[in-house]
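User: Fold this, then the next.

Assistant: Folding the first:
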Amino acid sequence: MTSPAAIPPRVLTVAGSDSGGGAGIQADLKTMLALGTHGMSVLTAVTAQNSLGVQGAWELPVDAVRAQYRSVVDDIGVQAVKTGMLASAVLVDTVAELLAGTRAPVVVDPVGVSKHGDPLLAAEALGSVRTKLLPVATVATPNLDEVAQLTGITVTDEAGMRRAAAEMLSFGPDWVVIKGGHLPGEAVDLLTDGGEEHWLRAPRHDNRHTHGTGCTLASAIACGLAHGQDVPTAVRSAKEYVTGAIRSGFELGTGIGPVDHGWRTRG
């Protein structure tokens, strides 16, 4: 008689779909599988998207988002939640309310624009991100463009990353990761809770196929938290995973290809 299989940690992504498979829900679920968790999804929006950019985006009704969330959380349960593209103020408000009633760590990737510069969040939703979504975040993971959107701070160096982190923390997340990948030199991120400060550095790989890095990092952090890691350990592990995925990113289509979520399984 065989013993029942162990149940992997359960991680939920609340985000939009990327039809090209490199970012969004698709990247999240690939990351969750690669990192030994059971990935589940609440779809907030559908995009027509490929290596060249986003050709169209359509948000789902609030009732559909709420029903997906309740269906998963009330029956299956979650050990961590990750949010990505939320599209509009009403969806940000809805998701923030749902998260506030869920006893699990939350990683908020405050997605504002795509890798190609296409807007993925309505301008009027920024206030809701600041006042409702970020206060329920265990970890927030803005890139420098999102920092500028949310705080008005234009970061050009590591001192600016520290100022941006303090401003982001004022919105209420427990921890923030300021992603400095757009700065010259090595790829450096700053993780802080306002007391502890961790500078995470990695070599910069000469590979332009980096579609999905933000989604992948946030999902990897959520996986670490679901496995019971503390925040610094989860973020360091996620940084290592994403760095390998960037190194192995590959060409698809005629534009920017995706990172390789399965790089650890390829020789």
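Now the next one, as you asked:
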Amino acid sequence: MKAPKALRGVRGVVPPRRGRQALRDSDRLPGRPPLVLLVPALAGLAFLVLPLLGLLVRAPWSTLGTRLMQPQVLDALRLSMVTATLATGLCLLFGVPLAWTLARVRFPGAGLVRALVTVPLVLPPVVGGVALLLVLGRRGLVGGWLDSTFGITFPFTTAGVVLAETFVAMPFLVISVEGALRAADLRYEEAAATLGAGRWTIFRRVTLPLVAPGVVAGAVLCWARALGEFGATITFAGNFPGRTQTMPLAVYLALETDPEAAIVLSLVLLAVSVVVLAALRGRWMETFR
């Protein structure tokens, strides 16, 4: 592979070697980085890291174990884990087919549908909670019918927490899975079709194994986003201990009465975030090998 004509003869420009290792080597430029880029880069890094260091420095390490074993903390942690897992399950149930439809099916308005799917990424969570309340509340467009016909209500219940977390987390899964589907080699699916396999069999036996890393990465991101959800949850489900009070809501409440307890709860969420990032990095590294 030859270098572009404009760069031929320029010192340091060599034709890249073949293979992925060549791509990894070629993205590093020789020499020192310019100060005009290095200084704001370091400032941005400090802006992101210093608050986390402040959290670690101010943490009450001597009473950390005692505070973590308090009943309200354990209840909030248990509820957060359960609701985030259930929300991730709903996202997988509905998000994977939605991502497949966006990646594999051509239909009018596909761009609009994709934009609508990604709206919760930029929509303020509180607005999402209000929207859920207007649709699924007791006087909502659908919630009123569910309440009068089946006696089912979602606001200010644990199920409401799951729905709020699903609303804000599903786009992460859809985007991840759709990207994996678009990057997958279609020749395997075409080969399975020529051998007589049906669309469902191809999806289950060929497509899903191909995009499994993307599904796993999307599910982990989805779970982490659901675990940290605050705005839509407090608006749609309220803040009732043992029923709708998740970890972020417990942090908000403890910050007003017991700041050290809020720091402890924040440390738990920080630890979960670090674990999630480490798991995703391992998955990405495995994917690109």
